[in-house]
Write the structure tokens for this entry.
Amino acid sequence: MNLFDVIIVGGGPAGLQCARELSASTLRVLLLEKQDGFGEKLCAGGLTKKDMAVLPLPDHVIEQKILRASLHTRRRYAGTVTSEPYLFMVNRKELGSYQRSLLEGTTVQVRTGSHVTEIRDHQVVLKNGETFGYRYLVGADGYSSVVRRQLGLKVKRRLVGFQYTIPVKQERAEVEIHMDARRFSVWYAWIFPHKDTIAVGCCCDPRKANVQKIREGFHLWLKDKGIDPGDARLDSYPISYDYRGVKFGNVFLAGEAAGIASGFTGEGIYQSLVSGQEVARMIMDPAHKPVELALALKYNRDLDRILRLFRWAGPFRAALQELLMVLMNKEWVRKRINAQFTE
């Protein structure tokens, strides 16, 4: 049986970022990815300047750099234009391939097609029966994390996302967020432009909203906006925001396995990159204080406060959304909200 100092289960943004950070150490590291490639996940694909601060991306990985964004309600509109990009559209496969390329020439061993099915005492077992030993184990294996299950942490708080990926003939250059309490309750719909497609979707918490009603509202909204999905498939996917911590003895969780996404926006790439990086630093230095992880969690809490405010508003939710639009047209409010994505 091969022994490693660290085994990382999962090759998403969190696992690959963790491996990249550990590659600078003398630790013997193995990353196991069950798929044959990296980045195979449905996602709106929007990164902010916060993401870029953790993982700077070269231009060939970025599909679009966004200067324009708009927020819509039924009756109002607030737009913002910046002199420098603050949103960056990526294809998840391209992002995964780039992150994987950063491990070339390092001592980190990477194995694809390696499905972990069981965790034993200091051992992982693959579907084909192979076993590997570890000193530290990192679960970065997403929503259905086998490592999280081994820790006995059931996912109780989750979002369900719906999204069409629609081909377009002409590139769009603006990110759109649409709030409509009739259609989406406290959540919203998005339009994210990519190279030759747009990602159009919405999400909700099935414990706090009727999923079927949200789905129907989403299609009514599409009709209202004149958006025809054509032959595009409506994909559905879960997002865990059931955060319980990242360190459990010699076992760590990162990314969606840690439930570190936002329960309001569904945003998770930034949180995944930060958690993967901080877990690596905690392994290399047990005295490390994960300050950047604390900031990511604070960001989530700030978004949770907005979510709770909308839930508290109840039947006055639509009026509150309209009030938000009035405020968004105030320069000082726009600057403060923009700072959430950049600072």
Q: What stands out?
A: The first strand starts at residue 2 and ends at 9.
